[in-house]
Amino acid sequence: MKGGRIAKVFYRINQYIKAPQLRVVDDHAVQIGVLTKEEALARAQAAGLDLVEVAPNANPPVAKIINFAKFKYQLKQKTASSKKGSRSQDIKEIRLTPFIAANDFNVRLNKATDFLKQGNKVRLVVKFVGRQITHPEFGHNLLAKATEKLSELATVESPPNLRGKLLMTILTPTKK
What we know:
- There is one protein chain.
- Helices cover about 35% and strands about 30% of the residues.
- It contains 4 helices and 8 strands; from the N terminus they run ββαββαβαβαββ.
- The chain has helices at about 35-45, 70-85, 100-115, 135-150; strands at about 20-25, 30-35, 50-55, 60-65, 90-95, 120-125, 155-165, 165-175.
- Strand 3 and strand 4 form a beta hairpin.
- The longest helix has 18 residues, at about 70-85.
- The radius of gyration is 29 Å and the shape is rod-shaped.
- The model has no long low-confidence stretch (mean pLDDT about 85).
């Protein structure tokens, strides 16, 4: 993958295969054995299928007797199923201030609850403005209150830590 794009893989088929000897596998994944290119092509044509070089770097290269359209479809299905299984987990950020109003606090906690129910991690950030940084205990109290209210849905991944004027903690959704 380069620049966010998936690299295209080209497969040599039929007469475009260059190797003189091939390890041949049929369309049911049964190994036929090592054959010459001509013998393998003859078997593929007799079955009405294509000869596709699937592992050109092997010694001898591996070729499969299969319909090329079916082969491409199977590859597409395999990549789709691998993407489906690896759903990325986003970190959603909720910003608070040390002296936040009660309703604003509850609205932000409801949003955090939604994110956790969707399976995303939540970063709670308390931003200190001006001289508020002289009392970081207000931020710690606020985060403790928030993590306590979200304790049914999440566990604390990283405890609150102060970075400059930001006090942060990360919550991970609990497995159901």
